[in-house]
Amino acid sequence: MTIHEKIAKIGEELVHCKKGCLGIKNNPQQGIVPRMLILEAKEGEPITSIIIGINPGQADEDEREWYRREGANYEAMKKYWETRIKSMRYYKGLRTLIRQLDYKSGILWTELLKCENEEKYKEPPLQTFRICIKNYLERELKMIPHEIPIIAVGNKVFEALSYRFPNRLVIGVPHPTGSYGNFRKLFGKNWKIQKQFLKLAGETKDKEGNWNSIKLFPK
């Protein structure tokens, strides 16, 4: 199987996940489904980065109607991402960053948790994250060589991935749409990444040859 086929297999499985974890919403009849596992790469194109967020945001009525109409399946999820989501600020900002870090080929977009959270929870319980990471994210990362960097979006994601995957390069970055504007502070004029952050991101291994965990969070 190709990497596209392997990712699609996991994607189809997660869209139909029925584990019923605490603190999440998963109701295909209402158009609310687990989502956001996307391989943005042409057939045969190498993956040069993995970008991981915390979980999908709340689906709006347009997205829910899409899944009610098209069905809860992986192909519908990919098509909606391609036509409605990939050009959003979150994705555009992160592409700008990783291209300047010289990761210029395919991207695997994924999340710690594949379901959106219930409104009454600021975020789902820790056990829900543990279950989802074990069942999905760990399997995704096993398909991709250890030298391919993980871009962890947000402080909590950075800490979780640094602890859980010590044998991989993890680069933590602020959320592109965060209210404090720290993502923008990574860049100077014309959206060029500042030299100090570019240099820090290039320190991929420590003196003993272990993969680094690097935090690009402007003060």
Overall description:
The protein is of the alpha/beta class and 219 residues long. It has seven helices and eight strands. It has helices at 3-15, 61-70, 74-85, 89-100, 126-142, 155-164, 195-201, and strands at 24-25, 38-40, 47-53, 106-111, 116-117, 150-153, 170-173, 213-215. Strands 2-4-3-6-7-8 form a six-stranded mixed β-sheet. The chain has a two-stranded antiparallel sheet with strand order 1-5. The protein is globular, with a radius of gyration of 17 Å. The N and C termini lie far apart (45 Å).
Radius of gyration: 17 Å
What proportion of the residues is helical, as a percent range?
A: 25-40%
Query: What can be said about the biggest beta sheet?
Result: 6 strands, mixed
Based on the structure, what is the oligomeric state of the protein chains? single chain
Strand content: 5-15%
Order of helix and strand elements from N to C terminus: HEEEHHHEEHEHEHE
Side-by-side strand order of the widest sheet? 2-4-3-6-7-8
Helix count, DSSP H or I runs of 4 or more residues: 7
Low-confidence stretches: none
Task: Reconstruct the topology from this structure.
Blueprint: H1 3-15, E1 24-25, E2 38-40, E3 47-53, H2 61-70, H3 74-85, H4 89-100, E4 106-111, E5 116-117, H5 126-142, E6 150-153, H6 155-164, E7 170-173, H7 195-201, E8 213-215
Parallel strand pairs: 3-4, 3-6, 6-7, 7-8
Antiparallel strand pairs: 1-5, 2-4
